[in-house]
Description:
The protein is of the alpha+beta class. It has one domain. It is built from three helices and seven strands, in the order αβββαβββαβ. The chain has a four-stranded mixed β-sheet, covered by helices on one side. The chain has a three-stranded antiparallel β-sheet with strand order 6-5-7. This is DUF4189 domain-containing protein.
Amino acid sequence: MRSTAALVRMLAALTALLLAAALMSSSAADAAPRSSTPSARTTCTPPHCWVAGAINVKTLHVYIQYIAPSRTAARRLAMRLCRADTGPAKDPFCKQAGIQRYGCLAVAYRLDDDGVFRQWSHGEAGYRPGVRKGVTIHTAIRHAKANLDDVGTKHVALRDCTPR
Length: 164
């Protein structure tokens, strides 16, 4: 009797554990990063323009603020966009995701083989004389992806550049 009751309890616990793992896995897979475009723009005069990013590591939304006249303004505005979408002014889940003066910024993420979000990174690239804007964007994307581990698939959440 005692061994049968213990076996039933163990099977019930194992079933509950497997169900919880399945639910957590599916909700994490559905939570792949989403991109958000900036709702606020400021003005600047190239080459004195900055682009900054922010990511909410809980919701996995990515925000980029560009056309900012200073490093501080770009960072502050990107974080403001992140926090405006999540609520409290001191949201611990909003993290800065790179900054670049007169160039491009990309934010990338990695999913494991089961499609579950695992990691994010950013990459920057400054404009160089004689190099097209498209090449600079791809350089920022390459840098963002290079900072990710090699396991799973890599995706670009958002990328943008300052005016030239």
